Structure formats: structure tokens, C-alpha cells
Amino acid sequence: MTTGPGRSMRELIESGEKSFSFEFFPPKDAAGEERLWRAITELEPYRPTFVSVTYGAGGSSRDTTVRITGRIAQETSLLPVAHLTCVGHSRAELIEILDAYRDAGVAHILALRGDPPGGPHTEWVSAEDGLEYASELVAFIKEHYDAAVGVAAFPEGHVNAESVEHDAQVLKAKHDAGAEFAVTEMVLRASDYFALVDRARAIGVDIPIIPGIMPILNLNSMSRMVELSGREMPPEVTARIEPLAETPAELRAEGIRISTELCQELLSGGAPGLHFYTLNFSKATREIFTALQITV
Q: Is residue 245 part of a domain?
């Protein structure tokens, strides 16, 4: 992208302090947008390394994602990372989207293959004159734009991966294509994250890998998200929250404790930072920061 990303994301993440970042999703209506901007305003004082804005299934939120990401770049002190997927886009459309990001002052992209429009467990079908893999999207962006590119990583392997070893090779392909950092899907056990890092390092992937954190606030929604990713809730977590299913306030408090313990274990074990999936609310993330004694 013509303006360039400035300092690389890798430099920012490896600058000496732990990296903290927040992820938002594009709102569907005016009330959702108001809630999103309230969360952004409340989290901005924490000076995150970056914030990211997701891309709807099948590219459904394309215009909103571009607009929100550009507004963050222009109206806040935050560094936005825009999501971009292969789903449903030809090469010409990808250029159009990347041009829009460039014109909005966005020079950091998270390159993803994306879930099929029918959902994460349905068959993948490439768009006409489109791209098949995230590694191809990374290379495509690097070829056409001066952009910093990040990618996704999967602590227990992607739901469609043949094995965790094959999944590591996929991450290596994205690394070799020019990715300079990775963010994981939500980490359920610290040991899974550290095993992913070990697999990656063993085959030459040396980029920062940031663990994703999803605060546990509701049993049903958390279970559903875990199931969609093709995994199971760790029994040690289930044992702590299932008995509280009929007392939502107590379950939420215990979920925050569990999430905080996970963050502490990840940071003490050498994770370069934490990436919070906020669901466009700031309270839970702020509570975890308080428990971690991270202040503004």
C-alpha cells in the first residue's frame, strides 16, 4: 500500500513489552455500531498494540468492515488491522478491497482463507479467478501492496487439517509467503498453545504467534463457539462452570477467573502477548486486565 505500514507489526510485537490487542466485528445496525464505538472508546486508553475488525462469512460484511476499519484509522489513536478473506472474491475484487483499505489509511491486513459461506463444516468452493489458500492471499497482498500481513494459527489444528503436523506446514506456507505475525483462534488450554509454538519453531516458523483469548461469560454461547471450531471444552473448565449454569452471575465471575488464569499461564510461559475477542463489549476484557494488574 502506498503509504506503507510504518514499523512492521513484528517490530511492534517484539518491542520489549507484551503485546495486547482487541478484536471487534462489524455491527449489523445502528445500535450495534453505537455499542462497538463505546467498546473502542473504553479500550483505547489501554493503548493496545493493534485492534482488528473481522470479515463476515462469505465476505458478507465487506463494506462495513472497510468503513469501520478506516474510521478507526482516521478517528482514533489505535492501529487497525483489517481482516480479508479469500471467500467469494476474485483477484480483481481483492484488489478493489485492498485499494479501499489503502485509501482509508489502513496498511495492516490479517489474511485468512475464511470459512465457506455455508459454515465452517461445509465444502470449500473457490471463487472464479479467486484464491484457494491463505498463503496465496498473503503472497498476493505482498506482491501488490506495501502492507504488513498477519495470519491465523490454530492451537489444536484447524478443524479441517489432516493432523497437527500438517496444520503446522500450512502455517509455514503462510510464513514463507511473507506473513510477519500470527494470531490464534481462541486458546482453551495453555499447553495447546505452547505445543503449537513448538511445532512451528521446529520447522522454521519464527514469527510471533499471539494467543487468542475468549472470556468465558456464558456456558451455551461458549460451548457453541468451541463446537464450531471442531473442538471440545476442556473437562477441567467444564467442571468449574457447569455447576454454575443456573446462576449466570456466578458463572460469569468464574469464567473471568478461568480466563485470567489462562492469560497468566500464557504470559508467564513466554507468549508475546494476548489477543482478546471482545464480541464488541469491553467490560470482560477490562476486568481481566484489572485482575492481571495491567493498568492504563
A: no
Provide the CATH number for the domain around residue 42.
3.20.20.220
pTM for this entry: 0.92
Q: Give me the pLDDT at residue 16, please.
A: 75
pLDDT value of residue 10 = 87
Residue 289: inside a domain, yes or no? no
Q: How many CA atoms lie within 13 A of 57 on its CB side?
A: 9
The answer to whether residue 296 sits within a structural domain is no
Residue 24 pairs with which residues in a beta bridge? Answer: 53
Low-confidence spans in the chain with pLDDT less than 50: 1-3
Concerning whether 23 is annotated as a catalytic residue, the answer is: yes
Catalytic residue among 17, 23, 162, 180: 23
Helix (H, G, I), strand (E, B) or coil at 173: helix
Percent of the chain scoring above 90 in pLDDT: 70
In a domain, 32, yes or no: yes
The pLDDT, as a whole number, for residue 3 is 45
What is residue 59's predicted lDDT score, i.e. its pLDDT? 52
When divided into structural domains, the chain yields a total of 1
Could you tell me the residue range of the domain that residue 121 belongs to?
Answer: 9-216+270-281
* Strands, E assignment, 142-231: 148-153, 181-186, 209-213
Going by C-alpha positions, the residue among 27, 82, 26, 95 that lies closest to residue 50 is 82
Contacts of 178 (CB under 8 A, 6+ apart): 138, 139, 141, 142, 149
**Cβ distance 129 to 23 under 8 Å?**
no
What was the pLDDT predicted at 58?
A: 54
